[in-house]
Every structure is written in C-alpha cells, then in structure tokens.
Specification:
The protein has about 325 residues and is of the alpha/beta class. It is built from 13 helices and eleven strands. The mean pLDDT is about 95.
Length: about 325
C-alpha cells in the first residue's frame, strides 16, 4: 500500500469523522466496514433493514458500526420533514419524500448529513454517478462560492519520479462531460485546493492538450488556453499553466525544451484534462498499465464531502475513499 494512503488514514484517525455507507445491499460495503472499524479510521453508519444487513455481512465483524433501519429509526420523521422543507419550491410532498428517502438510501444518507448527524457519505458501488450525486445536489448543495461540482482521481503510480513522487490528481475524470473555459478553470482551481488538502504539498497545475504553447491550432486548443487565462486571473496564488502536452507537463527535460519559460512544465502534479473522455481514459490507462492505485472519483465543490465509487471498486477502494472523505470532512 502507498505511503499516500497510510498518511491519509493516519490523518483520519487524528480527528475521527462519521461516514454513512448507504449500500447495505452490497457485500463490499461490509468488507470495507470491517477494515475501517478494525483500523479505527472512521465512525460508520450503515443504512439498511436487519434482513439486508444480515444477508450481506455474514462472517464479517461490523459490531462497532451503527446500523440504522430507516423504517423504524426515531429520527426518520425529522429527516422526511427536512426533505420536504428543502424541496418545497419543487413541490415535494411528504409522501414523495418518504418514497424517495426509503426507496433510495442515498437520499436518506444525505438527509443525515444535512441534519448534522454525520460528516460525509460514500456510495456508488452499485449506484451510478448520477444516482449518487443527484441526492447530494438536491439536499446538501454546492459549497458557497463554488461554480460547479467536479470529480477527480488521486493516482499513486509505483516507482515513478514524476508528479509528487508518483502521486497526482487527474481531473475531471468522473463528472463534467465537456467543460467550457469557465468550467475548466473552476475544475483546475478546485483540483489545486484538493491536491494541497490531501497531499499537503504545493499544487502545480497543468492544463492538458494535444498542443504545447501553440504547437497546434484548433478550437479545442483555444478552449484550454482560455481556461488557463481565466484560472490565472481568478486564482493568482495558484501555479497553473497551459496548454501543455502530457510529456511537457510532467517530464522535466521535455518541459524545459517545449515550454522553457513555464513554472509548471516538467513539474506538474495536478493534471486537468480538456474533457471527460480524456480524463476517464487517462486514469484507466495509468491504473491498468502502470498498476497505479486510483482513489475516486472524489467529488469537490459539494458543501459536505459526498463521494462516488466506481462500480468496479473493491472493498479496499472503498476503505481508501472513506479515509479521503474523512480528511475532506476535517477541512470542512
């Protein structure tokens, strides 16, 4: 296991947070819970009926978790009334709130966080990204001053001298399909903040393209150039540059030859991809071919940490994302 994850777990233990796991219908939830509780990373709430919990946790020790059956829990009524209040402008009735919150535990989990009874949620092992994020945006909403919610992966590449000793953030690799320059600039700023929170080092942000400093002409290149200018103007404290090809961004010799005047070229540890296709393909290539650890998709820009999992995740992946969620909650 990487020193990155060891460090994140140690930070999580220092100020333990309460994380909700709503996917009691999936055994991986309980395998992860056993590890999280054994390693004392977080306090856990698992939402489910006794039947769901029993069927999926056989042989695992989750005795230290708080199990909440939403059908009988004493605060369910309070959560449903909160839901109605939050969505009254959309005409949500009490009956609809009840149907949604009990029919989809992700809504229930977000209501627990909104009510102050938990610090974050990790879901997505058997829910799509849309089904994980819709409830969080309806109930918890975006962070004040943040233009959009985006997603990143923390990539930890073994035996790698690039980035922060092989640790990078790749963004957006999970959510924002084809961001315009304003959105791309916002993704870069959020990702720099996330890198500094999680890695405790200065973020050096490369805005990636198939072109370096005018080597190719295309509207796609113009978008990245414009996003870089917006990000610099809005965030004078961030080291950010573009447009840069991947090798120019991370390899010092290539960076110094292709972009000699750049303070980012050859040193980048935050890679901002021009669109979701590039970001998603990029992280999966590095994960599979370089045998990198990939933690995410971690969301940024929601008022409380709500994190999505890849549906192909392992129990260990869930443990890693829960630890990251705890550190995000500490920053809140």
């Amino acid at each position: 296991m990487s020193t990155f994850l060891d460090t994140i777990k140690a930070r999580a233990r220092q100020d333990k947070k309460t994380i909700v796991l709503p996917e009691s219908m999936d055994r991986r939830t309980f395998e992860a819970a056993e590890t999280i509780l054994k390693e004392d990373i977080a306090n856990l709430i698992i939402i489910g009926t006794p039947e769901e919990v029993e069927a999926n946790s056989k042989g695992l020790d989750i005795s230290k978790a708080t199990i909440i059956n939403p059908y009988t829990y004493e605060k369910t009524e309070e959560y449903l009334n909160l839901f109605v209040e939050l969505r009254k402008s959309k005409g949500l009735t009490y009956e609809q709130a009840k149907e949604q919150a009990l029919g989809d535990y992700m809504y229930y989990a977000c209501l627990m966080v909104k009510a102050g009874d938990a610090d974050g949620v990790v879901s997505g092992a058997c829910h799509s990204t849309a089904n994980t994020l819709r409830p969080s945006l309806q109930i918890i909403k975006t962070k004040p001053g943040v233009k959009l919610v985006s997603a990143f992966f923390v990539m930890v590449v073994p035996n790698c001298e690039y980035g922060d000793n092989g640790t990078f953030i790749f963004a957006d690799s999970g959510l924002e399909q084809n961001p315009d320059p304003e959105r791309l600039a916002a993704i870069a700023a959020s990702s720099a903040e996330s890198f500094e929170l999680l890695c405790q080092k200065e973020a050096i942000v490369a805005m990636l393209s198939h072109s370096t400093k005018g080597s190719a002409k295309h509207a796609d290149v113009d978008k990245v150039v414009e996003a870089t200018a917006i990000c610099k103007a809005n965030n004078p404290g961030i080291k950010v540059d573009g447009e840069l090809q991947l090798d120019a961004a991370i390899v010092p010799s290539v960076g110094s030859s292709k972009a000699p005047d750049s303070e980012v070229a050859g040193k980048a540890n935050v890679l901002v991809f021009p669109d979701l296709d590039a970001g998603n393909i990029g992280y999966k290539l590095v994960q599979r071919l370089a045998k990198a650890e990939a933690y995410g998709p971690v969301t940024q820009g929601i008022a409380k940490p709500i994190n999505d999992l890849s549906r192909g995740c392992s129990a260990d992946d869930i443990v890693g994302v829960v630890a990251i969620t705890c550190v995000q909650a500490q920053a809140n």
